[in-house]
Amino acid sequence: MRFFVNARYLIVPVSSLVTITGILLGGIYAWLGVALFGVYTVIDTVTKDIRFRAEKDANGNSYGVKVFQYLVMYIMLPVFILLQLVLAWRLYQYTSGVPIGTANISIFSYQLGISGLHLIGATLSTALWAGLGIIYGHELSHNKKEGFFVSRLIMALSGASHFTYAHVYNHHLDLGHEDDPATAPRGRNVYWHTWLSHVGQSKFSYDLEREKLNNQGKSTLSFKNKWILGYLYSLPSVFLFVWAGGLLGVAALIAVWAISNFLLEALNFMGHYGLIRQEGHPVEHRHSWDNDNVFTSWFFIEIGRQGDHHVRGETYFWELDDVGAPNYGIGYFSLFVLTLVPFLFRKFVKRLLEDWDENHATDEERLVADKFKSIGIES
Amino acid sequence: MFGLFNKTKEHTAYINDESSPVTLKVEKGKTLLNAALSSGLDWPHRCKVGSCGSCKTQLLAGKIKPQIDFSYVLNRNEIADGYVLACQSELCSDVRVKVNLDNIKKRNKL
Ligand code: FES
To answer: If both were cysteines, with which of A146, A250, B53, B60 could B73 make a disulfide (CB 3.0 to 4.6 Å apart)?
Structure first.
């Protein structure tokens, strides 16, 4: 049981390595990362009704092995760096006109040079898997100093190092309230939310640093400013892509960052869409949506158990459980596809929000929901 | 240097009243807040991730290991006065702390 409980969270690490191998092999294999996303969307959809609780031994202790899970999370930092390096290598080949041909390393052959089409595949594959950095960046943001720092570095690979501070000091405190940019109010679509949430969290992180440094009598413009430092951590990626591909490299990096941040914000969007909390009142299970079908749980290292996570923020992901929070009933992959079509998503979520208003909301929260309805926003 | 070989598995937190404090055993790796809550103490808290400040306590003696930077939540004066966040503090020694436990309820005998 211990092996099973720990090994099941290796889907993303293994898939990231497969994606890297695909880009290294070149040709059609550069699309492997995209293809995996497609396959996983199907698996997630057909397994939507299978759920597991957090397994415990006879003494009530989790089977999760902290040292192992932390090791995996820390190792994901070099894996994500490697992902960018292999894309940069392919960009370099493309821009320097390396002819397409076959090369061998020992008994293994790979394609030298890359076509424009397959370079797009490599870029999309990189972007999608770089976006998964959020699941480790998120988990580590709640943990001890070195974990927090690794979280910052993982997020910096997507130009989003501010997330680590904003998530802990803003999202966990202000969840479900308009002061939290990461909570999407009813009526907002995922595209608009991506911008508002990203900029809002970055601004929060900047203000947090400014206030702290002012309190300490220090200048905001300094290397002690973690907001500035966070963006500096992203500079190696910028240099790498500019060196590898010039303007095309910049375009590729923008694509990687845009898509990976879109995935990050889509998770925030799905986690709390339309839920309402009165300011100053405690965060409770009802203020988050759970997505806890089997594939979502294992792939996203239980990030979908939002209800439990937001009440027991200090709890390791492998210990999170079903706490009866509102539940979408489908996994993140399927739900993500729905969010891409705002009209469909709002139709899907309408019934769930009606149920939330009726059975979960307090009178005060219901009043806020009624205000949305009075201006024509039902879901 | 001998601290390196210190195998102490738990420390004691002496809470409030100097002559007859509430005592709390805090296992290695556990935060002061979690130890208090699992012992039945009604220690004030809200977020448990170090962002709200409601679990703050004044460290009067002893050493703690902060899990995060307290200066985002506690102001300069509070830090100078020894305030720490219990949800982000592990103990490095026995400690004496002061906290507002107005509604102290001891569900178990400590
Ligand atoms: S409980 Fe919120 S800072 Fe400790």
So the answer is: B53
How far from A353 is each of A245, A268, A319, A370, CA to CA, in Å? 47, 17, 28, 12
| Helix runs in chain A, H state only | 2-7, 11-25, 32-46, 66-95, 116-130, 133-141, 145-156, 162-166, 172-174, 190-215, 226-233, 235-272, 294-299, 306-311, 332-339, 342-359, 363-374
The answer to whether B28 and B68 are in contact (CB under 8 A) is no
How confident is the model over B21-43, as a mean pLDDT? 92
Is the separation of the CB atoms in A74 and A153 below 8 Å?
Answer: no
Percent of chain A with pLDDT over 70: 100
Give the pair of three-digit tokens for residue A363.
């009178």
Query: Nearest C-alpha of chain B: how many angstroms from A236?
Result: 26
Q: Taking 60 as the threshold, does the pLDDT of residue B3 lie above it?
A: no
What average pLDDT does range B69-88 have in this prediction?
Answer: 94
Residue with tokens 């060196």: A243
**Cα B85 off chain centre by:** 7
Q: Write out the two tokens for A80.
A: 């994500």
Low-confidence ranges of chain A (pLDDT < 50): none
Q: Is A314's Cβ below 8 Å from some Cβ in B?
A: yes
Collapsing DSSP states into helix, strand and coil, what is residue B15? strand
Q: Is B49 within 8 Å of A208 when comparing Cβ atoms?
A: no
Does B32 sit in the ligand 1 pocket, CB within 6 Å? no
Tell me, what's the ipTM? 0.77
Residue B72 — very low, low, confident or very high, per pLDDT cuts 50/70/90? very high
- Radius of gyration over every alpha carbon of chain B, rounded to an integer in angstroms: 13
Are A256 and A87 in contact by the 8 Å Cβ rule? The answer is yes
B7 vs A21, more confident:
A21
Q: Quick one: DSSP state of residue A293? A: B
Confidence of residue B6 (pLDDT cuts 50, 70, 90): low
Instruction: Tell me if A359 sits within 8 A of A326, measured CB to CB.
Output: no
Per-residue pLDDT at B105: 46
Count CB-CB contacts under 10 A for residue B61: 11
Residues of A in contact with B52 (CB under 8 A): 173
Question: Hey, what amino acid is at A56?
Answer: K
> Are the CB atoms for A219 and A145 separated by under 8 Å?
no
Residues in chain A: 379
Indicate whether B108 pLDDT > 90. Answer: no
Contact B60, B36 (CB under 8 A): no
